[in-house]
Each structure stands twice: as structure tokens, then as C-alpha cells.
Design goal:
The strands form two sheets. Strands 1-2-3 form a three-stranded antiparallel β-sheet, with no helix packed on it. The protein is built from four helices and five strands; from the N terminus they run αββββααβα. With 177 residues, the protein is an alpha+beta fold.
């Protein structure tokens, strides 16, 4: 190497990032890059098939018709798998038949009819409605499970987009000393 071709490190210009460029770098490093990494992680996990459906209802097809049924893995989000609660099994057609009414009963153990679902509020409601209006078809779907609170009931209300609006009435029964 000839003389003068090799620069000393001390002779290199010392440029510091300041002002707006420094704040832009900090913003990108602390927000944009982590968000992109989480999006990439989510895509990799979805492609790999990791996880389980977290909706209260699962969609499936049977003989060319679309149905929704209870998702037995729904409560895995809120309980350990070993003690996770389940809905009483139900299956409904994705398209409601003409002239029928679909009623969703949401809630905890009282709505489910714990310990025996045959004595739940939804079963009584269906019998009372059929008795009062014999020519009308009522579909009463009991989407309730024991040991949950209103936050879980809110998640149950996230039904498929094409289903009707759901009104939820959740009440706690407490005995105070």
C-alpha cells in the first residue's frame, strides 16, 4: 500500500444521528420492527398448523350443508385443559329456516342448567314458547358453561358475522353473609 492510501480511524468523519432522524430510528426500532416480527411469527405458526380454534362455535359441512356446533376447545383459553368446561352439545344450521326464531341463551352455570342440562333455563324457555305459540318454530341454543364470568360471555357473543344480533343477559347469583 502506498503512503496516504490508508486512512487512520481518527481521521474518519464522526457523523452522529441527531434530531428527527434519531427519533425516527427509535420509533422504527421500538415499534415497527417488533410488530413485523410478531406478524411473521403469527404467519409461521398458522402455516405450521399450531394452535386451536378459539371461537365458541365451529363451522363444518355435512352432506353439502353448513352447520355450526359447539367448540369443545373454546374454554381452553380460560381454564387448563384438564379442567376446562364445555357447552352442552349443540348443532345448528348456518342458515335459519323461514319463519323461525333463533334464541341464544348465554351465561354461566344457571343458564347451562348445572348439574343437569335438562333443567336449564333454555329448555324451560323453549317449552314455554312452544306452549304459548304452537305454530312457531323456536331454535333455543344454550351457549353457556359453568364457572365463567361476563368476560367469557362477551367472547361467546362473537358469533359468525351473518348470524343475528345477540343480546346477552348475564346475572351473578351471590350469597353474602
Amino acid at each position: 500500500m502506498g503512503k496516504g492510501e490508508h486512512k487512520d480511524i481518527k481521521e474518519l468523519p464522526n457523523k452522529r444521528i441527531t434530531g428527527r432522524r434519531l427519533w425516527m430510528f427509535r420509533f422504527v426500532a421500538l415499534t415497527i420492527i417488533p410488530v413485523l416480527l410478531f406478524i411473521l411469527l403469527e404467519l409461521v405458526l398458522r402455516v405450521a398448523g399450531y394452535g386451536f380454534p378459539a371461537n365458541a362455535m365451529s363451522r363444518y359441512e355435512e352432506n353439502g350443508r353448513v352447520f355450526y356446533c359447539d367448540n369443545v376447545k373454546f374454554c381452553w383459553r380460560f381454564f387448563p385443559k384438564e379442567i376446562a368446561r364445555e357447552f352442552n352439545p349443540f348443532k345448528i344450521s348456518a342458515s335459519k329456516s323461514e319463519g323461525s326464531y333463533r334464541i341464544f341463551v348465554l351465561g354461566a352455570s344457571a343458564a347451562q342448567g348445572e348439574p343437569d342440562g335438562a333443567f336449564g333455563f333454555g329448555r324451560f324457555l323453549k317449552v314455554m314458547l312452544q306452549d304459548k305459540y304452537p305454530g312457531v318454530n323456536f331454535e333455543v341454543i344454550i351457549a353457556a358453561t359453568a364457572a365463567i364470568n361476563s368476560h367469557v360471555v362477551l367472547e361467546i357473543t362473537r358469533l359468525p358475522a351473518h348470524m343475528e344480533q345477540v343480546r346477552s343477559f348475564h346475572r351473578y347469583h351471590r350469597i353474602c353473609p
